[in-house]
Amino acid sequence: MICVSLGRARHARMIAEHKHLVEQGVKLVELRLDYIGRAVNLKRLIDDRPGPVVITARRRDDGGRWLKSEEERTMVLRSAIASGVEYVDIESDIADQIPRYGNTKRIISFHDFDGTPENLEDLHAAMAAADADIVKIATMANTFSDNVRMMDLARQSSVPTIAICMGEMGMLTRILAHRVGAPFTYATFSTDKKIAPGQLHFKEMQDVYRYDQINDDTQLYGLLGDPVGESFDPLVHNKAFAGEGHNACFLPLRVPEDDLHIFMDHARDIGINGLSIDPPHQGRSIDYCTQAEAAVAGIGELNTMALDDERAVGYNTDYRAAMDCISEVFELHADAEKPMQSMSATVLGSGSLAKAIVWGLRSKGCNVTIATKDMEQGNEIGLAHGCRVVEWELRHDFRANLLVNATDIGMHPDVDNSPFNADQLNELMVVFDTVYYPEQTLLIKHAKNIKCRVITGIDMYVRKMGYQYKLFTGKQAPLDVIRKTIKDATNPVQLN
Ligand SMILES: O=C1C[C@@](O)(C(=O)O)C[C@@H](O)[C@@H]1O
Predict the structure, then answer these.
(1) Do 373 and 473 belong together in one domain?
(2) Long-range contacts made by residues 225-228, C-beta under 8 angstroms, separation at least 24?
(3) β pairing state of 134-140 and 105-112
(4) Is residue 250 domain-resident?
(5) What percent of the chain is modeled with pLDDT above 90?
(6) CA-wise closest residue to 293 among 356, 365, 377, 358
(7) Is 32 assigned to a binding site?
(8) What keyword terms does UniProt attach to this protein (predicted)?
(9) Which residues are CB-neighbours of 3 under 8 A, at least 6 positions away?
(10) Is 31 annotated as a binding residue?
(11) Does residue 201's CB lie within 6 angstroms of at least one atom of ligand 1?
């Protein structure tokens, strides 16, 4: 079950929003009385309530907004119990001042917005002993192991326990709460108002992550990176799983660079079966592979890993996807050894995508010039794969059959910029922009204006996701669902 936290300054707003949530199918709503600006009129909020509630009045010290007296706060909590609300949230230090009465369930809670305490087990035991129906601990995740400790705590507890890590790093603990035994998880009522850091909107929790359907059999995958919050991968993979009726969930896994080993040590304990890998982990993840496709060794990076009990197999689906697009446009023969031998390409950028594409082009015999603002990185790729590397300012100086933008210039919100001057394009070029948000970048628009053949970032993204889906599930990917989902999500008309 998902409990939606609702905080509004005015009673009328709180009541209207509560009703609206229930109409949308929400089964439990937390009324955050500390958000109410004036004196709290509890009767008004709960007498005609449209569905079950948790009553919470959080102090400032615990991350809430309660400014009135502590006496008033304990009074309100006692009155809520006397009125027979379904749940009341009682911080552990005041648990003995708020007696049990009637059928109201006691959520004994503890918050730490700075970190996750070392003595979690002791803390939990003391809370459970305070006549708790539910123990709830919400702490900030500062390292990935905080998530692991909190999920273990919930899993091992005999008292129903909600153990949530706040912050972007803790999102998986919210999504997997039920799987580790929690009676419910918390989500926010509004896309722009988060009651706590890392909270997801309840619709996202419900429709994208399918929270209520996650069980012990659910296959878990995720995006390993830092940051991961802006990525469309969870949306797209989860829609694909749902469309195919596949019992799987794709999680956002924010893991800081230095925590990679902690994550990899625990990935199987959490139940992770596969990973899409983003910066900064694409290089070092190789150390955790038991085997990898040839492209991974060639490129020096992977972006996909499939895991089972013994094996961790690395792939580079960026390379595969990009080369599929290029092969299609140039109508390259799959069995020809060096089908691009007479061609040349200019690749803009020297990051992970550039590396993967340069390796692919070189293995097909293409002459490659890399233009980059980071000559050190560029020279590394140039040396490894035998291509020319030039300063960014010289990017227009080379004749090329193929121009590849592997930088993020032109990506939302930088939509008015193009990495290449329009008057330097010519109609014989194929223009490939790896940016997919938006699909119609300024570069793609310029290229289309003069009738160049183009490959868009969406063309590549759909193939990349399709390969990952196949590697994860062993089944053909629903490419139409993937394409529609990413197109809708990146459609500028929907931007707010
Ligand atoms: O304790 C919790 C959990 C929470 O802090 C969260 O992190 O989602 C949100 C609060 O409203 C609720 O009372």
Answers:
(1) no
(2) 225/253, 225/254, 225/255, 225/277, 225/278, 225/279, 225/280, 225/281, 226/254, 226/255, 226/256, 226/257, 226/278, 226/279, 226/280, 226/281, 227/168, 227/254, 228/168, 228/252, 228/253, 228/254, 228/278
(3) parallel
(4) yes
(5) 96
(6) 356
(7) yes
(8) Amino-acid biosynthesis, Aromatic amino acid biosynthesis, Lyase, Oxidoreductase, Schiff base
(9) 28, 29, 30, 54, 184, 185, 186, 187
(10) yes
(11) no
Give the CATH number of the domain where residue 19 resides: 3.20.20.70
Q: Whose CA is nearest to atom 9 of ligand 1?
A: 196
Looking at the structure of the chain, the number of domains it has is 3
In a domain, 223, yes or no: no
pLDDT tens profile 116-142: 999 999 999 999 999 999 999 999 999
Residue nearest to atom 1 of ligand 1 (CA): 138
**pLDDT at residue 495 tops 60:** no
Asked if residue 166 has its Cβ within 6 Å of ligand 1, the reply is yes
Atom of ligand 1 nearest to the CA of 188: 8
The residues assigned a catalytic role are 111, 136
Q: Output the pTM of the full model.
A: 0.94
Tokens 């192991």 correspond to: 145
What is the structure's pLDDT at 496?
A: 42
Query: What was the pLDDT predicted at 493?
Result: 64
Ligand 1 neighbour 164 (Cβ under 6 A): yes
Is it the case that residue 356 has pLDDT exceeding 70?
Answer: yes
The domain that contains 450 carries what CATH number? 3.40.50.720
Residue 492 has pLDDT above 80, yes or no: no
- Give the mean pLDDT of the chain: 96
